[in-house]
Every structure is written in structure tokens, then in C-alpha cells.
Amino acid sequence: MRRRRRSFSTLDADGEINLTALLDVVFNLLFFFSLATTIRNREAAFEVRLPSSTSAPLAETRQERIPEIQVGSDGRIGLDGQAVSVAELEAALIQGLAQNPRRRAVLSADGSSTMQQVTSVMDACRRAGLTDVVQRVAKGK
User: pTM above 0.85?
Assistant: First the structure.
């Protein structure tokens, strides 16, 4: 007596592949991950259009609050949403480094800002003792 082999084909009665179960799982995962992610909007002192990059580094990998330095196209400097001067920025960074010597910062510079503006901010960071500055740029096309 021959045993009949069972076929576990994904074909339905019409001969087509049934994707209903797969689509259910995909939409459930999509729904779960969209609810599980946190959406964070940073307050900025002014709008900064970021330059584009094809290999942008990730800015925040730890749970601690990382200060964000902004450089506008008109030369304005912001620190965590507050407009500051270069001297005030340096003093705030020195104070932050006194609390946490391994502190880092994120630099967001407008794509049309001059190199001199960004260099003066980077010099202020170095004078304050902050060596770990991550540039935040927009992802390229």
C-alpha cells in the first residue's frame, strides 16, 4: 500500500499564490513599529536647512541628553534652541564638560552658512575642551 505524499503548496484552488497571511504579518509589524518608535522634535532657535550627504553618521547612540549646536545661514549660533554668542557657547560647553568630561555635542550647520562661521563654532568647542562633535546632515538622494 502506497502512502500518499501530502503537498504543502501555497497555491489555492485557482492555482494562484495566496499572500493574505504574509500581508497580515507585514502590516501588523509595520503598525507595531510605527507605534513603538518615539517621534522627537527638537526645538530650534531658528530654521536650519541641513546639507545633504550620502553617508551621514548617526548622532545619538546613548541615552544622555546631547547638546545641539546650530549655525544659521546668516551667522547666528544656537545652543539647544537658544540663540547665543560664541563666548556664551564656549562658557556653556565648559560648564557642561565640568559635569560630564566625556560629553559630546551635535553640530547642525545650514548648508548655505560660511566655512568661517562653522570654524569659529568648532574653535569654541575645542577651546572649551569638547573634542567629540558629531555633524548632523540630511541624508542625500
Answer: no
- Is residue 132 within 8 Å of residue 97, measured between CB atoms? no
Among 116, 50, 111, CA closest to 86 = 116
pLDDT mean values, one per 10 residues, the chain (141 residues): 59 72 92 78 71 65 70 87 88 82 82 86 87 69 44
Alpha-carbon distance of 31 to 40, in angstroms, equals 18
CA atoms within 13 A on the CB side of 119: 3
β-pairing, 77-79 with 133-135? unpaired
Contact 72, 85 (CB under 8 A): no
What b-and-e string marks burial along 13-24, b requiring 16 or more CB atoms within 10 Å of the CB? eeeeeeeeeeee
CB atoms within 10 A of CB 97: 17
The helix-helix angle for 86-99 and 115-128 (nearest 10°) equals 40
SS3 11: strand
Could you tell me the domains of the chain?
52-139 (3.30.420.270)
